[in-house]
Amino acid sequence: MISAVYFFNSRGETVIYRHYRDDVSRTEAESYRLEILNVKDTGTPARIIGNSLFCSIKVANVFVVARTKKNLNAALVMSFLYQTVDVFKSYFGGKFNEDALRNNFVLIYELLDEIMDFGYPQTTAPEVLKELILLKGADVDKAMLSKSVTTQITGAVSWRREGLKYRKNEVFIDVIE
To answer: What is the DSSP letter of 49?
Structure first.
């Protein structure tokens, strides 16, 4: 489970961050930020500072960093970071840089809340997210949207025909003592 996601620019400044859990503080993130400034070669994508694991990727002039205190699969975290960047690119017209982050920070916070829940990655499919988070106000049939989004996210298939009604709703349970 990921505790926080940070976006640092090439100068080491924090552009945007989102904490998902309360088990991390800003001091270790500052240590990581200073290490980015001091080391010209980014080296390994995963580093342990203090008692936190930092996994990072660099896209254009932005470091995308995930932080955790748990022992988890680093490949899963790296995959999540790359998919997150792909989601942002799909919303920003193929661009992902510091200016795009600064100009769309409200959208980014909405997307970060939607793609991760309490440190667990949820849906990172841009097509599904574009149905949930609209760029401009749109006139949408909410019942139809709710039904299609639920089916896409959960993969649930209705086992009951539509329009089926019963006079009495009954449940029979056999209790054996």
So the answer is: E
User: What is the residue-wise DSSP string for 121-135?
Assistant: E----HHHHHHHS-S
* Residue pair 29/16 in contact by the 8 Å Cβ criterion: no
**Which pLDDT tens digit goes with each residue over 160-171?**
667 777 788 788
Backbone CA torsion sign across 128, 149, 145, 139:
negative
The span from the CA of 158 to the CA of 161, in Å, is 7
Give the mean pLDDT of 83-106: 86
Q: Kindly indicate the confidence band of residue 157, based on its pLDDT and cuts at 50, 70 and 90.
A: low
Q: Could you read off the pLDDT of 133-149 as tens digits, one per residue?
A: 776 644 455 555 555 66
State phi, psi for 123 to the nearest 5 degrees.
-95, 130
Token look-up 């029979």 returns: 172
Contact 54, 94 (CB under 8 A): no
pTM over 0.85: no
Task: Measure the N-to-C terminal CA separation of the chain; round to a whole number of Å.
Answer: 43
Interstrand relation of 52-59 and 116-117 (parallel, antiparallel or unpaired): unpaired
